[in-house]
């Protein structure tokens, strides 16, 4: 794992609910797959964002190939898909690659909740 993304944590099915319950920070949950080129592009953007927003946000990624229960639970139909949660509540869901400016705007908006 690169130095930049050491704090972007891979999670598995059972860990999602635990993470959502324990954190009061804004959570970005990125659904991805290793074979997905748009996911690789999105991860690069997310890594940049983490460096700037690490005090406001926790970032987790979940590989859809190994976490089918979570894929079904959250009705993931395409990747990359990003969810924003705060205090166990889903605030926003978006599909496809999002640019850095759009993601930063969402983080600023939702971290104020």
TrEMBL record:
The UniProt record lists the keyword Disulfide bond: yes
Protein name: Thioredoxin
Taxonomic lineage of the native organism: Bacteria, Pseudomonadati, Pseudomonadota, Gammaproteobacteria, Enterobacterales
Residues forming the catalytic site: 36, 39
GO cellular component: cytoplasm
Site, Deprotonates C-terminal active site Cys: residue positions: 30
SUPFAM superfamilies listed in its UniProt record: Thioredoxin-like
Family affiliation: Belongs to the thioredoxin family.
Domain Thioredoxin: residue ranges: 1-112
Cytoplasm is among the record's keywords: no
Gene that this polypeptide is encoded by: trxA
CDD domains given in the database record: TRX_family (cd02947)
Organism superkingdom: Bacteria
Native species: Candidatus Annandia adelgestsuga
Function: Participates in various redox reactions through the reversible oxidation of its active center dithiol to a disulfide and catalyzes dithiol-disulfide exchange reactions.
Disulphide-bridged cysteine pairs: 36-39
Site (Contributes to redox potential value): 37-38
């Amino acid at each position: 794992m690169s130095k930049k993304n050491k704090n972007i944590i891979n999670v598995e099915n059972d860990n999602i609910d635990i993470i959502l319950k324990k954190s009061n920070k804004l959570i970005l949950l990125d659904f991805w797959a290793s074979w997905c080129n748009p996911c690789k592009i999105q991860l690069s953007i997310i890594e940049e964002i983490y460096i700037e927003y690490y005090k406001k946000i926790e970032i987790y990624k979940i590989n859809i190939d190994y976490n089918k229960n979570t894929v079904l639970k959250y009705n993931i139909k395409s990747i990359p898909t990003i969810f924003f949660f705060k205090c166990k509540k889903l605030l926003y869901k978006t599909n496809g690659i999002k640019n850095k400016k759009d993601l930063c705007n969402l983080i600023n908006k939702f971290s104020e909740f």
